[in-house]
Amino acid sequence: MGINKRDEGKKVNSNINVTPMVDVMLVLLIIFMVITPMLNNKVNVDLPVAVAAVAMEDANKEDAVTVAVTRDGHIFLGGDSITVDEMGTKIAAKLENKTSKEVFLRADGRSNYGKVMDAVDGIRAAGVSQLGMLTERKDN
């Protein structure tokens, strides 16, 4: 009688196939590279007192573009009543020949917050690079 010897162990391939792992890692790398710039939601605001005083003087100039939101939600561009839909085009037309794209916003303290935010969105839609929020100092 002879002994049957199995040589199946010699045929086993113990090499690790890293290609699928590298493919997955490259896809994840691309996803993170695309998403990372979108995660920057921080808005840096620098409002020194001296600059705020100068901005208030700039808002009082004759050619300053000012938007006002009243208590009942009406929006005015200068002295003209406008709607949120036409705000972007009218502001863009006023800023066409100006070098500084700055708009000042005044809002009543009791106005609806949503209306104020709609006004800010309309101003941003006009391509405004600087938005000044005007307030009044209350002395105690």
UniProtKB/TrEMBL annotation:
Keywords: Cell membrane, Membrane, Protein transport, Transmembrane, Transmembrane helix, Transport. It is found in: Cell membrane. Its main location: membrane. GO terms for biological process: protein transport. InterPro entries: ExbD. Pfam families: ExbD. The keyword rRNA-binding does not apply. It is a single-pass membrane protein; Single-pass type II membrane protein. One of its GO terms (cellular component) is plasma membrane. It comes from the Bacteria. The chain crosses the membrane at residues 21-39. One of its GO terms (molecular function) is transmembrane transporter activity. Belongs to the ExbD/TolR family. This is Outer membrane transport energization protein ExbD. It comes from Granulicella rosea.
